[in-house]
Design brief:
- The protein is mainly α.
- It has a domain of 114 residues: AhpD-like.
- Helix content is 68%, strand content 0%.
- It has 10 helices and no strands.
- The protein is globular.
- The N terminus is likely disordered.
Length: 207
């Protein structure tokens, strides 16, 4: 019995340690510890966003060059995409769900609802379901994004519908939003970046 308890304790130890140290991979760097390159990147970030680096940009500060490039791309794709900021939030939520990225979801679910994405659509995406009721534009964007993320391709029919409705420049932005927030989700997941204490983790879905 004692041997069995010891084996069980050893088996669960990696899980316990993983939880205890989940936030220690790329901890937020205190500004007083910035290198000259990090300091310059943080100053550029504050000039562009009006506040210090936050969220995914905190772990990215370990590579200030990548952080600055990511911030620059985000300045456009987050605020000025040719697809519009309402439909872009739909793509962001789909990306956060695909990667089960809790922080990305925590930040953007309220933004999406405020931008005009219905609570029913948000709940369906959260639960891994196709939303039952979507506008024509939402359906086009959902189908394009789900095909791109699930099959790594977009069918001719889906591409044609998106092109006819939005045009080629917007299609470039539509795919770029998916790619950009995939980058952030990957960085956040690799860093095990925590969600705030008032946040709820996304349901873990079967792979």
């Amino acid at each position: 019995m004692r041997f069995r308890r010891t084996i069980l304790a050893l088996a669960t130890l990696p899980l316990a340690l993983g939880t205890a140290h989940a936030q220690d991979r790329l901890p937020t760097i205190p500004p007083q510890d910035y290198t000259p390159e990090q300091k310059q990147a943080a100053e550029s970030f504050a000039q562009a966003r009006g506040k210090p680096p936050f969220g995914p940009f905190e772990p990215l500060m370990y590579s200030p060059e990548v952080m600055t490039l990511a911030r620059s791309m985000g300045d456009y794709l987050r605020f000025k995409p040719k697809i519009g900021t309402t439909l872009s939030e739909l793509v962001i939520l789909m990306t956060a769900r695909r990667w089960t990225q809790d922080y990305e979801w925590y930040v953007h679910a309220p933004i999406a609802e405020k931008a005009g994405i219905s609570a029913d659509i948000i709940a369906a995406i959260r639960d891994g379901r196709r939303p039952a009721l979507m506008s024509d534009d939402e359906t086009i964007v959902y189908d394009f994004t789900s095909e791109l993320q699930d099959t790594k391709r977009v069918s001719d029919a889906t591409f044609a519908r998106a092109e006819a409705r939005f045009g080629k420049p917007a299609i470039v932005d539509l795919a770029a939003i998916s790619g950009y927030y995939t980058l952030l989700a990957m960085e956040l997941n690799a860093a095990r970046y925590p969600i705030p204490k008032d946040g709820q983790p996304l349901p873990r879905l079967p792979e």
